[in-house]
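The protein record passed on for reference:
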Amino acid sequence: MKRDGTAPALERGLEILELLSKDPYEMGFQEISQRLRIPPASLWRLLKVLTNKGYVIVDPKRRTYRLGFKLASMGNFLLENSHFKSSVREELKHLVDLTGETVELDIKLKDQLVLLEQIIGPEGLYLYSHPGSAMPYFHATAPGKVYLANLPYEKLRAIVSRLGLPKLTTYTIHSFDQLLAELELVRERGYAFDIDEMREGVGRVASGIYDREGKVIAVIAVVCPSIRLRDHERLKTYGERVKEVAKTISDRHGRIF
């Protein structure tokens, strides 16, 4: 492969990180070598440096490589201090004013949803979660459903196979066919909701923020006592308001990603 850069080793190292950031997130040595056309001897040296520095983790039993937590912490720092977080805060406050409820901004980091921002509304539900908290269950939360609804079928299948569909409450979706039907409705409505599915007494209504390529970069959600969402008209109203604010953020700020 012809390279125009002046630092080919650095360029190859970045290509390795970019490759491991995509599904299936974990790859064997030969697959990395073949995908990037890097000679085995060179790849071995590059992976050695990346693992020593904490950017890549090697599983000695499975002989696979995946991104290390150092990148996750760097990503957290970037988002925590980014212009994006501060620039969307006014829109999040607007959504609080429209609903009176607590509003959250969530992002996806690997196989978890991470709470980036939270504004407690005057009538809002106070949660014990705080910015930096993680939710590992995509199928049981409205923000997670938004992410899943925007995945191709094969990637969706792979994630479900990897994480499973644990039944957290009586109302949790626990079959793949049921999940597929739910995600189709999410795509049709433009927003997702969960009622008592991850935690009884709590409900969320969420919609995605998209970049210029149509990829979900974050999700905003209204969080409230679940009984309020059993009122169909209120659920629909919250859904439309969340979708409207999410679209505004996408149009104004999605381009920075």
About this structure: The mean pLDDT is 88. The longest strand covers residues 216-225. The CA atoms of residues 140 and 215 lie 21 Å apart.
